[in-house]
Amino acid sequence: MRVSMKFPGEDTGPEGNVRARGYGITCVLEDGQVLEKAAANISVVRGTLSAQRAAAMSSRGRGSIDPKGGQPYAAAAMSLVFHSAHPLIPTLRADVRLFQVGDEAWYGGGCDLTPSYLDEADTQQFHRYWKDACDKYKPELYGELKDWCDRYFYIPARKEHRGVGGLFFDDMSSGEAGFDVEAFVRDVGDGILPSWLPIVERHRDQPFTEAQRNWQLLRRGRYIEFNLLYDRGIKFGLDGGRIESIMVSAPPLIAWKYNVTPQPGSAEEEVMRVLQQPRAWA
Amino acid sequence: MRVSMKFPGEDTGPEGNVRARGYGITCVLEDGQVLEKAAANISVVRGTLSAQRAAAMSSRGRGSIDPKGGQPYAAAAMSLVFHSAHPLIPTLRADVRLFQVGDEAWYGGGCDLTPSYLDEADTQQFHRYWKDACDKYKPELYGELKDWCDRYFYIPARKEHRGVGGLFFDDMSSGEAGFDVEAFVRDVGDGILPSWLPIVERHRDQPFTEAQRNWQLLRRGRYIEFNLLYDRGIKFGLDGGRIESIMVSAPPLIAWKYNVTPQPGSAEEEVMRVLQQPRAWA
């Protein structure tokens, strides 16, 4: 097991015309017995909006942002990913983030599951956990964020979703949402471990085969395809961000084989079906 | 060892407003003793230029192409990659391609080396081979295509080149180049194996350590980062192409570790230095 931490307090580099000041913490556990790799990033940045970024945000519905830029902003984010050594324990990804301009704050975040094998009880328990968390705020909230997650974690070139979903949201403000979004995002942050740990406990002592491990390594290929080809957060981060903090989400070991097609009726085919056609779970 | 072939004779999907007709062969060898993965793609496509594609080509200096589109075209490409099981044998990537509109033909291609460890004799031999091949056509050709290769296979987020280079070129026509480009491209195709096999022969029976193998798996992470984040051919192919034929270039097994920094004076540091600062080799 290897634990690394970086707390640079560094200049995060150019953001448009001005330099933003910020710091970050990256914390990594590698080669753990259950967690083959676990990584968490925290970053806090302050800067002045460039015209380009302000125009993009304004057009995405943040109406109070001056599209000409020049306003000071603050941003904070916490993200994490757990890649399990056990092929029956799904990968967990989660984040919460805040973007503040003047008195207004927009929140984003989510928590989602990427299994190599479908376990219906795991998936239902995970989604029910997040439905309960959402129901405290708005009856339709879970359904909206579940659909958003299915849409976001999608690999068009494969016609596959990356996993069995969960929650995903962005640009959410209390004014528009009609509830206390900060409280909701705190609940999301607090819910990450409780939503996942029961799944870990159920599987960590189960035996598994080399064939299951090999399938897990192949499925991780899709995980990195999504991250590098499509993920907006990674594309944004690569533009001047700290590369090792961005790529820390990569699975620790990945395999590619040509044109692998699971046997009809196999457990491998079962998970592919749900990745191709998301289901209702809660 | 597993050898797969696909010869679909299939419709390659939408290209702008019209559908192009074409076929492809993908041939893969997996788990070979020397070649952990070897893959070759051949594709031949005929279609009608869309306005979008014609405008892009015309602006890239193909002056005889009508930017409004509508002209028939033909395209053919052969590409291959050899990922060695041995960490002292570099990855070889090569391709030749042709794009034809009316009586005019534009060629592209290249051949480049991605080692995990720097072997100066290998690298010199490889570059000298390609310099000799270029010198038959134009004295400054090798230097131009060597520099093009260094520029193309670059990972800005890492400030690293993917490998030690070779040749890379695109949009080359006999009219502009002032020599017989078709003959040159045939020489490139014929030279791929002779430029690489002596390197394989020198190393294939050398012993290697687990640490060297692990370093190779980490370096393959950079290979896939380049392919998925930056490679133009892959981005183009993902837009309607056959995904398994595109992703066949992926290394068979890849590892990521956080913030790996080679020891000063180590062989791992030596290769990093040349990836950060390309050298003259021929």
Automatic annotation (TrEMBL), chains A, B:
One annotated GO molecular function: coproporphyrinogen oxidase activity
InterPro entries: Coprogen_oxidase_aer, Coprogen_oxidase_aer_sf
Catalyses which reaction(s): coproporphyrinogen III + O2 + 2 H(+) = protoporphyrinogen IX + 2 CO2 + 2 H2O
GO biological process: protoporphyrinogen IX biosynthetic process
GO cellular component, one term: cytoplasm
Pfam families: Coprogen_oxidas
Protein name, as recorded: Uncharacterized protein
Native organism: Gonium pectorale (Green alga)
Lineage: Eukaryota, Viridiplantae, Chlorophyta, core chlorophytes, Chlorophyceae
